[in-house]
Write a structure and sequence with these properties.
By secondary structure, the chain is α/β, with parallel strands linked by helices. The chain is 28% helix and 17% strand. The chain has a six-stranded mixed sheet, sandwiched between helices. A four-stranded antiparallel sheet has the order 18-17-22-23, with no helix packed on it. β6 (209-210) and β7 form a beta hairpin. It starts with a helix and ends with a strand.
């Protein structure tokens, strides 16, 4: 037992039952007699410290996934934790222990973005379990900075455990039915990696039930898998007010006391909500043993001790000043992150633009000057936002005339309430006529996609009823394209949209996701070739929603690049560059897979005229027979920088588990037989090869 747990256990032994229970609610009161200060456990830091005033608003999680850069994601998380400490320190000096002011950060979200209609998908790292695991581990390590003595900078949280990805309107009573194979191969790997590799301090249960058992009261998940199989030793928190769903919606219990008991007995330590206030009654009725209460409170106080915010424990982060929050250094890192996250989907040669050859540009669209479109959900408040329009003004100054129109509302049929429908279309036509090139900025914002109750999208509870551009945006794009002027489409959204018309008619397309407060600056610099794009899609862009399985079907059949039989509009792992790369040589340590897996050394040459970063992706495919076997799966990636004309080395490491597949019972094994490994700048599907103009290199291995 470590010193933190020993201390926590000693504290618990001195508490009354009511005092113990008081510490199991997210807003925990002080116990002056024991030197325990008041503490609110609820804080958010999905892509920056959220909901507590000024903080750096980094690109949304889905945009961070598009960087395919673990090191950068870890650097961003470390910056987020620094700001969390700075804000916590300031709050403590002035006696502020309110919600969103603590060091227990309920991030990252490592659910699998299995269906593009899910509104909260932009909180995740995309559709792939391996990419999600790598991005999630990097974020956790950056937030926690766990030391050898067990102390941590902030406490990260893996959420939502498990199998949670919509529909939002049904989440409080929904039962996700999942096979052992899909559970093991798709829904659990990221959580397992965060626990076993990154030593995440907290895990949050999901609202939904899994195969008939509410996740926040699911002993199989919270005790058998999480603690016994994976060795988790942090605290488990319920999603907010999820415990009352046990009796109100899941009908698994009869009342609040029974629900609270089920949660605690199953392994839930902290209640975001108020249900655990009924634990006194539950103990009196014999529904839960006081020893289970002791166990939970010990877990909670151990985390507070590791953070150095209880008893005589202190932290080396206590003196981080408030002034570091949203500082120049943070803004520079934010800009770097946004640049790395932008994905170039199409370019017929129009990009990069040359401002010396332009007299006037049109900037049109509901997201062109929208701060809301920069941020995504679960965000803080930046001290400065740079929209696309503002970024272009800043970059061009007076050298090029900028003509701007909102074009249309984000989703309504008019901008002005008293006007006729499509009331900006004549202005759009006039701007197109006067411009050398037109930049359209379309898409969504977090009022249209997000969490139930957090969006203005009440008709779909935050989910998307369609993958089409909302409102009049498609008509706006058609009008611009029909003007005959060169058109660049910038899509700001947290998820895949059906942008087939843009693919056929626009000259270039950039997917920015929600790019953060510096988004407009990064986009302007990309448009004019200050750097080469390197982002890759962490999700598949399907052509239409008609090809998707039913939203409530949690089987992976037909979902994501791993199981879909449809050709994507833009595939997972795809993204263009302004420069070009050639893999000159790949050399494997062995053609036979052994206990150490295989190392693949890569020689990469930048054959273009610009410096740039190249994401090298490695996919593994089992060539034998089997039931529900994915075609191929991402199993490693690396990002290499090469100057124009430069040759560099990179390495891919495939451990034995990269070749393992789960059987129908969810048991992993490496099958005897042949495997194909694909090394390149995309996945090995025909659509990616056509878009990239080349296919990955194939390598054969035997086990």
């Amino acid at each position: 037992m470590d010193k933190y747990r020993e201390y926590a256990k000693e504290l618990v032994s001195q508490m009354t039952l009511d005092q113990k229970i008081s510490q199991m609610l997210h807003s925990s009161p002080a116990i002056d007699r024991l030197g325990i200060s008041a503490y609110n456990w609820w804080n958010e830091a999905l892509h920056g410290v959220a909901r507590a005033g000024t903080a750096t608003v980094f690109p949304q999680a889905i945009a961070l996934a598009a960087t395919f850069d673990e090191g950068l994601v870890g650097e961003i998380a470390a910056a987020v934790s620094t700001e969390a400490r700075a804000k916590f320190n300031a709050g403590q000096r002035f006696g502020d222990s309110d919600i969103y002011k603590g060091l227990t950060l309920w991030a990252p979200n490592v659910n699998i973005f299995r269906d593009p209609r899910w509104g909260r998908g932009h909180e995740t790292y995309g559709e792939d379990p391996y990419l999600t695991s790598r991005m999630g581990c990097a974020y956790v390590r950056g937030l926690q900075n766990r030391q050898e003595d067990g102390s941590i900078k902030t406490a990260a949280c893996a959420k939502h455990f498990a199998v949670h990805s919509g529909p939002e309107a049904l989440r409080h009573g929904f039962n996700a039915e999942v096979s052992p194979q899909d559970l093991a191969e798709t829904y659990l790997p990221a959580f397992k990696a965060l626990v076993k590799e990154a030593k995440v301090e907290s895990v949050m249960g999901a609202y939904n039930a899994l195969n008939g058992k509410p996740c926040c009261g699911n002993e199989d998940l919270l005790t058998h898998i999480l603690r016994e199989e994976w060795g988790f030793d942090g605290y488990v928190v319920s999603d907010c007010w999820a415990v009352r769903d046990f009796h109100e919606n899941h009908k698994a219990t009869g009342n609040m006391a029974e629900s609270a008991s089920l949660a605690v007995n199953s392994g839930c330590d902290l209640n975001c909500g108020s249900a655990f206030a009924y634990l006194t009654q539950a103990v009196e009725e014999g529904l839960v043993e006081e020893s289970a209460i002791d166990r939970a409170v010990t877990n909670l106080l151990t985390t507070r001790a590791r953070l150095g915010i209880i008893g005589d424990f202190t932290s080396g982060y206590d003196n981080i000043p408030y002034e570091i929050t949203d500082s120049e250094h943070m803004r520079e890192l934010n800009l770097k992150a946004t640049k790395s996250s932008l994905v170039l989907l199409k370019n017929n040669g129009i990009l990069p633009l040359n401002k010396e050859k332009l007299t006037a540009i049109g900037v049109i669209g509901p997201n062109a000057d929208s701060r809301a479109a920069l941020s995504g959900n679960y965000c803080g408040t930046s001290s400065r936002y740079i929209t696309v329009l503002e970024g272009l003004w800043e970059y061009l100054g007076d050298s090029v005339r900028i003509l701007y129109s909102q074009g249309c509302d984000l989703y309504k049929d008019r901008v002005e309430q008293l006007a006729e429908p499509d009331d900006r279309i004549s202005e759009v036509k006039a701007i197109c006529e006067a411009s050398d090139v037109v930049i359209t900025v379309l898409g969504l914002d977090s009022t249209l996609e997000g969490e139930q109750g957090d969006t203005g999208n009440s008709y779909a509870s935050g989910d998307k009823p369609s993958l089409n551009l909302p409102g009049l945006q498609e008509n706006l794009l058609r009008t611009v394209c029909e003007s005959g002027k060169p058109v660049i489409a910038i899509i700001i959204s947290g998820s895949a949209l059906s942008i087939g018309y843009a693919d056929e008619n626009a000259d270039a397309i950039i997917q920015s996701f929600y790019p953060g407060a510096m988004g407009g600056k990064a986009i302007a610099q990309l448009l004019f070739g200050e750097y080469s794009p390197s982002g890759k899609l962490p999700v598949t862009f399907p052509r239409t929603e008609e090809e998707l399985p039913d939203f409530t079907d949690y089987s992976m059949t037909g979902r994501t690049y791993r199981y879909s039989e449809h050709e994507a509009l833009y595939p997972f792992g795809y993204g263009l560059s302004y420069t070009s790369f050639d893999i000159i040589e790949v050399k494997a340590s062995s053609e036979v897979l052994g206990e150490d897996g295989v190392e693949i050394n890569i020689t990469l040459k930048n054959t273009g005229a610009m410096d740039g970063e190249c994401v090298i992706e490695a996919y593994v495919k089992f060539c034998g027979e089997g039931e529900h076997i994915p075609g191929y799966q991402l199993k490693d990636f690396t990002k290499a920088f090469a100057g124009a004309g430069e040759t560099v080395s990179a390495q891919i490491k495939l451990l034995p588990n990269a070749f393992a597949l789960a059987d129908s019972e969810g048991v992993f094994k490496v099958n005897k037989g042949n495997y194909t490994v694909y090394i390149g700048e995309s996945q090995p599907d025909k659509r990616s090869a056509a878009l990239m103009g080349k296919a990955p290199i194939e390598m054969s291995f035997t086990f």
